Amino acid sequence: MARDFRAPAALVRHYRARHPHPVSELISPPHPYGRAAGLMAVVVLGAWLGLLIVGSVHAPVGPMDTRMTLRPSLTGGTKIDVSPLGALELRSHVAPIRLDVDVDRLDPVRSQALVDHPERIAGLQDEVTQDVGHGTLDLAVRSCAAVVAGATALGLAVYRRPRRALAAGGLALALLAASGAAAYATWNPKSVLEPKFSGLLSSAPSVVGNARSIVSEFDVYQQELARLVTNVTKLYDVTSTLPAYQPDPSTIRLLHVSDIHLNPASWKIIASLVEQYDINVIVDSGDTMDHGSATENAFLDPIEDLGAPYVWVRGNHDSLTTQRYLQRMKNVHVLDEGGAASVAGLRFAGTGDPQYTPDRSVRAEGKPVEEMAGIGLASALRDQRAAGTPVDIAVAHNPDAARETDGEVPLVLAGHVHRQEMEVMEDGTRLRIEGSTGGSGLRAVEGKYPDPVETSVLYLDRETRRLQAWDEIKLGGLGLTKAEVSRHLPKENQPGATPSPPPAGRSPGSGSPAPR
Questions:
Q1: In a 3-state reduction of DSSP, which class is residue 257?
Q2: What is the pTM of this model?
C-alpha cells in the first residue's frame, strides 16, 4: 500500500521538476490597453448600429412629416434634407454627432388647412417651434435607448458575459451624454445665418432667405428654423414654377463674375442669376477671353442681352482688341488706368491687367508690374476722393494689384486665381477674389475632376454702399450637375456684433477713406 501511495507522489514531483510554472502562468493575460481598445470598439460600433437601426423618430413639423436622426460625425452640425429641392447644412455645433432632419412629405390634410385658412400662417412659426422641441426631446430619449441596446447586444455577442455587456451599454450612454454636452457647449444659433444649400439652384434664394431680413429679424435658432420650414412649405405649395425671390428694395445686388475663359455656358448661367436674384449690376474682373484674338470677339455679343449693366476690366488673357470691342457696347462700362464710372448707385474704379500673357513675344514681368498697376489704381482712388466723387468698389484682375488699394476703398474685387476668397486687409479694405465663372474654360478637363463654375452675389446697402452679405454660388464643372449656395455675413453685420472700426484714415460715416 505504501509503494502504491508513493508512486503517484513521485510522478507529481517528476512533473513539477519538468514543468516549474503552472499552466495558468503559461498563458499570457490580455494587455490592459488591448482590452480597453477592444471594449471601446464594441461600444462605438454597437452605439452606431443602435442609432442606425432604431435611433430615429418620425415627428410632424407644421404641415410636414419629418424624420430626425443622430449620426456619428467628425465635424458635427445639422443637415436638413428637403427632397426634392436639396439639402441645407448648418454649422450648428462641433461634436462627434450630427443631427439629420429629413423632410419626408408635405401632409395634404394639414397643408389644405393652411390653404383654406391662410390666417394660420401667422401662428405657424410658433407651432413649428413647439414641434421641433418635442421632436428633439423624443429623439434624445430614443437615441439613449438605441445606443444602450446596440452596445449591450454587441457586447453580449462578443464577450458572452452579461456584466461586460452591461458595461459596454453604460459606456455607450456615457459617450452619447458627453457628445450631447459638447454639442450644447458649442451650440451656435447664428449658424442659420450662414447655411450651405445644395440642390436646385433656382430654389436657393427662396430657401435661404433675404440677407437684410435675416439680419434684422434674427432672434433664436428655433424661430429661424421654423421660418425656414415655413419657406419650404411655400415652395411645396407651387406646382410648375418656384416662387420668385423677393429682394429687399433698399439692397443693391451685385453679381461678381471672373475668368470666364471663353466658356459659352457662362452666359446662360449669368442670365439666369440676373433674373433670379434681380441683379442690379454685373462686375467682370477679367479673363473673359482665352487668347484675346479678334476672331473671339463674337463670343462677347450675349453681354448686351444679360439684362443688367456690365462693368469690366481687362485680364491677362484679354487684349486691347477685346477691350475696344466691349467699349462699343451700350451697357458695358470698361474701366482702365483708374478710370471711374457710376453704375446702379455705386461708384466703380478699375484698371486692366498690365500683362497680356498670350503674346509669347513679350516676356512676362510678373508680380512687380502688377503691384505698379495697383499703386496707380490707388492713386486714382485718392484723386477721385479729392474731387468729391469717392469710389465705393475698386476692380482689378490680379489680386497683387488689388492689394495695393488697401485703405483707399471699402471693397476691391479681383479674380485670376480661380478660387473664391474673402479677406479684410490690414488697413480695413475688404478683398473679394472670385473663382472661375467659366469653370476654367478648356482647362477644366486637365485635372482629374473638372473645375467648378463659381460666382457670387454681393448685397450692398443703398445708403452706405457697404457690404451686407454675400452668397457664394458653386456649380458642378463640365458634365456635373451639383449646385451649392452658401450664405455669408461680415462679422460686423451679424446680430449682436459690435460694428468694426472703419479702415485706417477713414472718418465715421464717410463713404471712403480719407487721404493718407
A1: strand
A2: 0.66
